Amino acid sequence: MDMDLTEEQQAYAQAAREFAQGELAPHAARWDAEGIFPKEVFHKAGELGFCGLYASADIGGLELPRLDATLVFEEMAAVDPSTTAFLTIHNMATWMVGNWGSPRVRAQWGEALSSGAKLASYCLTEPGSGSDAASLRTSATETPDGAHYVLNGAKAFISGGGDTDLLIVMARTGGSGAGGVSAFAVPADTAGITYGRKEDKMGWNSQSTRAITFENVRVPADHMLGEPGQGFKLAMKGLDGGRINIATCSVGAAQGALDAARRYMLERQQFGTRLAEFQALQFKLADMATHLVAARQMVRLAACKLDAGVADAGTYCAMAKRFATDMGFQICLDAQQIHGGYGYLRDYPLERLVRDTRVHQILEGTNEIMRVIVARQLLEKGAELR
């Protein structure tokens, strides 16, 4: 296995690093403190292709492998995990439109999403169905003439809700269970859609999070993604990539935290000695770096599996998501501890990195659910995972 990045991959990473330093770093703390959803930055990201990294070329996407996309997201998340995380969600929605949208939907929304001119949200979670997503209750009833579906129900914890232009909505068109779910591309300003209050969150404050209610929302039939009953399957395909994406955001944040801790240890003195000379802190820093490299390699392995389309790719995505988000959060905590009292102040980035990475262990399937996925593959399907 060749672990070295190609020149092209290095160029993408460098472009993302420069974008993060120029467009995210000067503003991330203010966006967090004031709860600003920075639409203009997403538009700028779109100009570089970062809003359609792995979307199909025929809608303006770069059609990059998932591995290459992780390089971009990691560089951005090292500066601002919250803003980067929304960008990953938008990329997932854009990819779904490009892969399964009807010609009309692709023509109307494809290039607008890939360019960042329009933004999209992903709507799966409901007030009563989080980890048990297949039990969702939002309904989509076909009209007698077959020209529309009428949506009724509610979604919860929707990133970008109220600030985005398109909603990718999973709704029930058939019976119970996963087989009765279909997916729809729903313009966010369609009559009958209402948005709840902006949630007051621990982190991820640069992206709005709201509940969304659908009351007799008429959606053209050709706004269905894929075929009737395929929605849950498409949602899970999206989540495999989404799990890699959020794991990558944790890796990026951990890299930012590690860099900050190293700088602080080289500069700060206690008892007349630099912190870098204390062996206990040297050991802690070494463990942080080791765990970070392990998490990064697991994420990249999962991305390669997904790019190759192998049957067990989803299991590797689950393992990578679980490990990288746990390790990423712990590395941020350790870096904060190295900073002592300064790590608790908003003058330093550590407290924001800690808050932003905590939710990564919860969303895109909780880490407990990731363990269930892996265990089932081992126990019920005899997976070897070698």
Could you describe the 3D structure shown?
It contains 11 helices and 10 strands. The chain has helices at 7-24, 28-34, 39-47, 66-77, 81-100, 103-114, 231-267, 279-308, 313-338, 350-358, 367-379; strands at 120-123, 139-142, 148-159, 166-172, 181-187, 193-195, 209-220, 224-225, 269-270, 273-274. The strands form 3 sheets. It has a 4-stranded mixed beta sheet.
The dominant shape is globular
Strand content: 5-15%
The overall pLDDT, averaged over residues, is 96
Number of strands: 10
Largest pleated sheet: 4 strands, mixed
Structure class? alpha+beta
Bin the helical content: 40-55%
Radius of gyration: 21 Å
Annotate the secondary structure layout.
Layout (H helix, E strand, L loop, with lengths): L6 H18 L3 H7 L4 H9 L18 H12 L3 H20 L2 H12 L5 E4 L15 E4 L5 E12 L6 E7 L8 E7 L5 E3 L13 E12 L3 E2 L5 H37 L1 E2 L2 E2 L4 H30 L4 H26 L11 H9 L8 H13 L7
Parallel strand pairs: 1-4
Antiparallel strand pairs: 2-3, 3-7, 4-5, 5-8, 6-7, 9-10
